[in-house]
Amino acid sequence: MDAAWVVVADTSRARIFSVENAFSPLVEIQTLSHPEARLHSGDLVSDRPGRDRSNGSRSHDVGHMAEIKHDEAVRFASEVCAALETGRARGHFNKLHVIAAPSFLGLLRKQQPQPLQKMVATEISKNLTCKDLETIRSNLPHRL
């Protein structure tokens, strides 16, 4: 099978495309969404962060809201990689092209199992999740 998959992702959306041969058009086969990534950090937790009083009368927050957003992004990266790994294991593609927002690309790399990593032919650090098929295709190598 000469099929390739292309994943275009950021922290809130991933679009997975299939390409039957080197010059075929992209065909969207799956869309994953993670609406939690669009929420404010405060909306992701049910209570206020803890407080710490140490040495003196000043106190400060314990825990960081940025960590909560990061944890959600890691969860979504894991979900995206699980969908890709399922496709790989079922033999749906033999090459993978990854286009992801710069901050999300690193998370995807960390979540990819070794067999999936070996399938990656191209990595592009751009956020194209909301772009049309023509724009996405123009950012990929001419021959997939």
Treating each run of at least 4 consecutive H or I residues as one helix, how many helices? 4
- The gyration radius over C-alpha positions equals 19 Å
Based on the coordinates given, report the CATH architecture.
2-Layer Sandwich
Poorly predicted parts: none
Chain-averaged pLDDT: 86
- Element-level helix/strand string: EEEEEHEHHEH
Description:
With 144 residues, the chain is α/β, with parallel strands linked by helices. It has 4 helices and 7 strands; from the N terminus they run βββββαβααβα. The chain has helices at 65-89, 102-111, 114-117, 133-138, and strands spanning 4-9, 13-19, 27-33, 50-53, 59-62, 95-100, 120-125. Strands 3-2-1-6-7 form a 5-stranded mixed sheet. The longest helix is centred in the middle third of the chain and has 25 residues, at 65-89. The relative contact order is 0.23.
